[in-house]
Amino acid sequence: MNKPASAAFVAHLDLLWQEVSLDVLREKYAKGAERELDGPEMARAVRLRVARALAAVEEEPARWEPVFLEALERGFIPGGRINSAAGAEIREVTLINCFVQPVGDSISETVDGKPGIYIALREAAETMRRGGGVGYDFSAIRPKGARVRGTDSSASGPISYMHVFDQSCATVESAGARRGAQMGVLRCDHPDILDFISAKREAGRLNNFNISVGVTDAFMAAVAEDALFELVHKAEPSPARIAGGAHQREDGLWVYATVKAREVWRVVMRNTYEAAEPGVLFLDRINAENNLHYAERIEATNPCGEIPIPDHGCCCLGSINLTRFILDPFTPEARFDAEGFAATVGVAIRMLDNVLTATVWPLPQQAAEAANKRRVGLGFTGLGDALIQMGLRYDTEAARAAAADWTRAMRDAAYHASVALAREKGAFPLFDASKLLASGMARRLPGEIRDEIAAHGLRNSHLLSIAPTGTISLAFADNASNGIEPAYSWFYTRKKREADGSMREYRVEDHAWRLWRARRGNDAALPEAFVNALEISARDHMAMQAAIQPFICAAISKTVNVPEDYPFEEFETLYLEAWRAGLKGITTYRPNSVLGSVLSVEKEAPRDLDESDPERRIRITDAPNVALQALRWPHRPKLSAGSPSWTYMIEAPSNRFAVFVGHVENGAPQPFEVWVNGEQTPRGLGALAKNLSMDMRAQDRAWLAAKLDSLAKTPGAPYSVPMPPDGRVLPVAGNVSAFAQVVRWRCEALGLFDGPEGETPLVDAMFSRKEPKSGVDGTLSWTVDILNPATGDDFAMFVKECVLPDGSKRPYSVWLSGAYPLEFNGLTRSLSLDMRVIDPAWIGKKLRGLKDLPEAKGDFFARVPGSEKQAVQPSTIAYVARLLIHRFGMLGILDPDGYPLAGGARLWTDAPAPGAAVETPGKVCPECGHAAVVRRDGCDFCTACGYTGACG
């Protein structure tokens, strides 16, 4: 290791330190007198402290301290906890970033080797208090509605206990003034999986958790085949659940429900598409690849997902800065310093192995687990920038080949180093050569390394993992691109709150961008290799992960960035491709709301676009005549003698509500209204029933049928429910779907759809029967953010618009993204069909019926549309209706009360000007207070001030 510094290493020393690097280094990693030094000296002091602390466990500390320090200076960056606490005066703080803790199916006893819930809660709190994040698999906890024999009651389910863990995490401050991070996992076959998938959709819930679904190959095969799938648990259901159809299989497990796998998968995908969670873990792939497949079962990961680990397992992390090993960057002679890299990898493995000896363990079970397996996770950072320095675009086959070669080199050097350590210090106690070498990962090792392992053993059961490196990359790598990721942006402005409350701004720049400017000057054009995360296709993001996964024995933290207009069907296919490609998991991030967002590109043939205007909209080339007198009754008929109605109770897993369909018997029975009732009626269904009642009073059976058919396909949380007329249990896509199918059955029973179709004035008056689709150039939408603190609704509403033959602009679709009841999707789907009726009186009447709709305890203050004043809004849905009326008013279609404007002026769009900055809403930033925290490179990142979360 004692060799001259490479040319690449020397070149990086020429750059002056960025303020962001100094700030993060001083605030998160430097201790005591170290904070008083300037940038290079402060970094060296931290590295010297770490090198000395890790060398102290060697038989010859004086020999190893300079070797360790040189590795740190050359680009090895230990995990955040190591840099922060190794050799510091804080005696009880762990050097380990994250753990997985078991949770059993009991309140206070150990069951099947897993501690009871409140024992696990205490152990997690102790772990977080000492600085570690925690992941859990909650699948052992019996589902909601399971029998509790001891108290003769029904279980409340794992999600109810997750809230307890969430509050504990919010209360316990981790060492170093850092809040604990948590990962919650639930298996895809757990009976409460549908509630788990959408558990974070309600604002303010499980804020201290990332969540992931543990997916099996059997489930994915059922998705691919559109087959049924059983939700099972070993816990006995309650008598009520058994009476409802729960039964026991031959293997002893209880089947709580049978669902269509593809519908469950679609709910996972829809939530991930709209809210970036849950993530997906491919459990069977994880365990098949596991070096210790013979000694453990992995059920969960650490909070950022790069380390699948068993109960009480830990992630002992470090990363090597690849940009330090590019020789002659930005030149035709650019090349990778393979010899220097391999040498640094070898020393890094030794240092991480020493961490396991030097650290304080929060729990004795964690110490025993680490001693038996000595699991470490070495990875790299700066991949995106290193490829740029080599002249390679991240999204090319050449870049993937280079990344694979570097990762293979890291693997080989790491395994050679661990074999050498085994010869010197002994193999990990659970080592079994024949069984380890039969694992999926070990079978791909070169024959030479396999022979060495068989002859001498391994010091560490696992060696490699690629973690997010948010703050360590900022502090120690000049803001090199994070982990495996490409650069997110070349520069941004960071706002930092000072002690006196003032805000200071300074520029944060990407390392490769700085190095290019330092070499070529500020006026030099960026080469083609400079491509950032948002310019790379989703599949190319995933392809990079797939290229290097075969060489990593743990996993990879990778965020597949997809644009807001990415079609849902392609998004869903992306995850299927990830499974087929052999990935261990996949995480995506799609912005929830961006002003001026473009229309999703789908597989149907595109409509013509207005290419003459940069504010392009879909252009409708032909429109029908205006439909008048389409209503049989403009208002609810006054029936002095009353009217008959039919009632059906929908028994959903989380809700129980009644559907009423009223009809008149003047000649043929005619349904004219529908409503819902019950204490558990989902929010939004009442408004949908009000909207649908007007459709029932129309003289157009085809229109009503189209509405009901569309609503029956509305995605939600799928379940199986008894349906009329005989109580046969059928799968439905969610509450809206169940509601629509019940209403459709009643209308058919009344004979509404019997006989000739008759006149279809509303269908004939639609300027587009199917939703118009854009081409690849997209189209504009009007967007507004809606927040109701009373109910926790926090979402963006998007209104898509087109140009009619007369040149007027018309909204034709509305949809939502964010935290809101899924039943709202039924109302927006219904209103989108209403918008496509050419006569604006139709949508105007629908919106007038909703604009004053109250909700108990759901009123809130918000800005009056078109005004700077604030006023009480009766409900979230009422506010949605008022905003839509306002948009129709801006386009000269409706007046402020929702009535048509004959010949009114057409107004321009309020889309942002070309080049204007876009705003991405998110969680509230703890540093600057703006609601601007998004997921970037696997970490929390504030788009307003540059704050980076706990990663690294």
From TrEMBL:
Domain Ribonucleotide reductase large subunit C-terminal: 97-589
Biological function: Catalyzes the reduction of ribonucleotides to deoxyribonucleotides. May function to provide a pool of deoxyribonucleotide precursors for DNA repair during oxygen limitation and/or for immediate growth after restoration of oxygen.
Domain of life according to the entry: Bacteria
Keywords from the UniProt entry: Cobalamin, Cobalt, Disulfide bond, DNA synthesis, Nucleotide-binding, Oxidoreductase
Enzyme class: oxidoreductase
Entry similarity comment: Belongs to the ribonucleoside diphosphate reductase class-2 family.
Organism: Amaricoccus solimangrovi
SUPFAM superfamilies found in the cross-reference section: PFL-like glycyl radical enzymes
Stored NCBIfam families: NrdJ_Z
Cofactor list: adenosylcob(III)alamin
Name of protein: Vitamin B12-dependent ribonucleotide reductase
Keyword Nucleus among UniProt keywords: no
Entry EC number(s): 1.17.4.1
Catalytic activity: a 2'-deoxyribonucleoside 5'-diphosphate + [thioredoxin]-disulfide + H2O = a ribonucleoside 5'-diphosphate + [thioredoxin]-dithiol
GO term, biological process aspect, one: DNA biosynthetic process
Molecular functions (GO terms): cobalamin binding; nucleotide binding; ribonucleoside-diphosphate reductase activity, thioredoxin disulfide as acceptor
